[in-house]
Amino acid sequence: MSPRKSRYAVPQYIAQAIRDKRKELLYGPYDCPKCMQKKVLISIDKKAKDVKAVCCCGFRFDLKYREIFEPVDYYSKMLDQVREKRR
To which H or E segment does residue 77 belong? Predict the structure, then answer.
């Protein structure tokens, strides 16, 4: 095996941009289904077992807390329920 060539290495600024984008996708902010802006924040209260998705436009959505879910999972679940209500 040959040693890794520096010309094939990913530049540090690109690697950091990829990490930042991944972190944003996982923890938010997310797109609001009402105003279509990237301002939905998801807050998780483990003691009260409650999850709230809130946007500055007045959109609010409550979900039940589950230990295995990440914020992006709650966002997907919220979108599914909002789309179901619109039908």
Answer: helix 71-86
Has residue 1 been placed in a domain? no
CATH of the domain at 71: 2.20.25.190
51 contacts 63 by C-beta, under 8 angstroms: yes
Low-confidence ranges of the chain (pLDDT < 70): 1-7
Q: Enter the pTM of the model.
A: 0.70
**What does the pLDDT read at residue 5?**
65
* Lateral strand order in the sheet of 30-31: 30-31, 38-45, 50-54, 60-64
Domain that holds residue 17: 6-86
64 phi/psi in degrees, rounded to 5: -85, 145
Predicted local confidence at residue 87, as pLDDT: 79
Residue type, 9: A
